[in-house]
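Deliverable D5.2: sample structural annotation.
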Amino acid sequence: MALRGTVARRALLGCIFYGIAALAGMPAHSAPVTETRRAHIAIATAVAGQDLKGILTVCQPRRGATPRPANNTAEPAKVFDNLYFLGIPSVSAWALATSDGIIVLDALDNASESQTYIEGGLTKLGLDPAQIKYVVVTHAHGDHYGGAQYLADKFHAHLVMSDVDWKVLEGPPRANYPAHWGPAPKRDISVRDGDRLTLGDTSIEFYITPPHTPGTLSIIIPLKDGDTRHIGGEWGGTAFNFSPTAQNFATYAASAERFARIAHEKGVDVPLSNHSSFDGAFEKIEALKTRGAGEPHPFVTGAESEQRFLTVAAECAKAMRLGAAEAPR
């Protein structure tokens, strides 16, 4: 079922909540009218279903930094005719091939990872790393920018980030900077909300979606699967690792709902993330290996899936907003 507009989404979420209430033996008239944390989490859980459990984890309170996997290595993979996965289990990077070179989306933690998994991954896939023309950094966290300067220096690639997040990197250094993050890159190209980057036959679109960082970029990406065209929507900053204020959670929910509207208008049918734990990239890559001719593409989960993904993100943020507002001061 496609969700058409804000009114339809709200109607669906209302039906889900009252359905949950009925299943719990609660009369419909006794279902809470005012919003509660549990109501938002119940909606998020129902919308996530069995296939979006990754994004649902943001509903859980954070307990320190997520540990890096013991085996933090992965093989590169061709995902679409023009999109390649170059990430590792802890963080994703993507390469978008165009008629005039390559756009890399995020640059991993440091120069060593960038050299091994981005430069080396492209070579393994039969692509020329010297064709990297742009490196887009979705946001100002070192697991996404740490290897960017290496690619810029070696391949003369331009670095692209939102103007807001360039200013973040130019400000005071982060106090808990992890040791494995590479240095902040030098300012290059800055983009604003709604800007496009065009290389050869391909244009991608940027939208500012705070507050994972103040200038987090979410991206609309054209994809090719033989003669079929699809649209990817990369949600640029997922986890709630910002200051846990009610205002920040409200901003996050508003960003997710806005990007959901944009994704609907653009026809996004491929949800993407820069962390594989949220979009199930490794499981889908495995499914690609056994995909037969004419069978559905594992990454093409549909427009409804993209809407559900962003609804879960928004509802979890709303639950956390209420928790932050209720917290003792």
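Annotation notes: The two ends are 43 Å apart (CA to CA). The longest helix spans residues 303-326.
The annotation will be released with the project's public dataset once the embargo ends.
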